[in-house]
Amino acid sequence: MKHVLITGCTRGLGLEMARSFAARGWKVSGCGTKAEAADRLAAELGDGHFIRPCDVTSSAEVAAFAQDVMDGPGAPDLLLNNAAVINGNAPLWEVPPEEFSRVIDVNLKGVHHVLWAFLPAMTGRGSGVVVNFSSGWGRSTSPEVAPYCCTKWGVEGLTQALAQELPNGMAAVALNPGIIDTDMLRSTFGEDSHDYPDPATWAEKAVPFLESLGPRDNGKSLTAPQ
Q1: Helix %, strand %, coil % for the chain, to 5?
Q2: Model pTM greater than 0.70?
Q3: How many domains does the structure of the chain reveal?
Q4: Which domain does 155 fall in, by range?
């Protein structure tokens, strides 16, 4: 049985990916910041899956979570760095420093914490695919979301460099999931977000696409089908 690990798996895209991978026969490990939400998903998915609360901004929490995963289901075959936040719409000079820092801490430092905790086992085994979730705003920009754009452009560069470091047989991919009707999109698009597919509809095409990724995709910047 293949094993997928998903950060930010208790809401939005992460939640629907967890459900879809489990339905397709994968062992699912994942984390979210809210303990109650993690408990609900663990109960929903049932035995054989490993869902725990963990804040990716804390290297200590990620290290403890990773050790529990290694002691249980083991190193993942597919690692999905999905956890992310966005700033409230505002010109850059009006974004409070603590809000800017929060976006950096989750979207960039959180990605590194997860890679730092899980890649030693994956590279030691010599197999596995890492998907770092980027955005259309990791390849373009818009006003009033500069902190978010900054982090997603950073994810693209981090992933390109990581791809050059991985051993043969592995892959690192930056993925633009597309435009999906999530809480994050609603914070920027408002009611117009309803013009786009919801996370469950998105997952119907995205999860088979993610399953298909392999070493041949190393270093690519991809966009999920919609």
Answers
A1: 55, 15, 30
A2: yes
A3: 1
A4: 3-223
